[in-house]
Amino acid sequence: MDAAARFPVAFPADALAAEVGIALGHVAQVREIWPEVEGWINFPLFNQTGAADDLMLAMYPGEPRPTPQAATMPAAADVVRALQAAGFAVKQARVAVLAPGEVLRCHVDMYPADRLIVPLNDQDQDFRHVFGDDCVAMGAGELWGVAGHVCHGAAHVGADGARVALLVDADPTASTPPAWYRAPWRIPAERRLVRPALGAAARAALDAADDEAPWLRAPFQFDLTAEAAYDGLIAACERRGQVERAAYWRRHACVCVPVD
Questions:
Q1: pLDDT exceeding 90 applies to what percent of the chain?
Q2: Is the pTM of this model over 0.85?
Q3: Is 12:141 a contact under the CB 8 Å cutoff?
Q4: CA 120: distance to chain centroid?
Q5: What does the DSSP assignment read for 46-79?
Q6: Alpha-carbon radius of gyration of the chain
Q7: How many C-beta atoms surround the C-beta of residue 194 within 10 A?
Q8: Sign of dihedral through CA atoms 142, 148, 149, 150?
Q9: Residue-level pLDDT at 258
Q10: Under 8 Å CB-to-CB from 110, ≥6 apart: which residues?
């Protein structure tokens, strides 16, 4: 059984793609309020309170409430409602955006949930996800599942555009998911990306970088597990004499916490 799956369900790709510009507008507003925010940015469509600034990730009793953003993205909101109708006890639904070169670094989720992903757009192989040993590129409108206990992450390895995806979290103790979700998970062979090996020259380039980002991007660009990439980052910090950073990454490798 794979650590992710593409399910035999699809949503209207054209309608979702038409809402990408709206999502980017919401992200621009987030950046105006918090200009220090960089990299992976998300905003809620459904949550416990219905508040636009409620980013709390937790299970709770009762139904989720739509935020003001949900009304501006009806196609994405319809996906959430369809998943509810399919038996998922949805608690959170967010839209996440990655700019070129940005990474949601590989991590293990900190709370149990049935995690579903529906991309609003695609850009050939630029928008990548890593799940354990596998790297995939998802298509717009496709429905994917993620095993949150496996180290996973996302990256935009292209030079332009923005990756926009809907992330839905359901309560596994309250959901009655359909048979296709309960069947053994499989990643279609054609969706597994072939990444080049991390050769000596590429490793030297990663080690020579002035920051840590290249090592965090490495699992999306090379045939390398997230754990091996973190080991490489720790070793690079040690060679540079960055004892505190090496210790930091020993504590936080594959842990979903903000970078200090």
A1: 84
A2: yes
A3: yes
A4: 13
A5: EESS--TT-------SS--EE-HHHHH-HHHHHH
A6: 18
A7: 7
A8: positive
A9: 53
A10: 57, 256
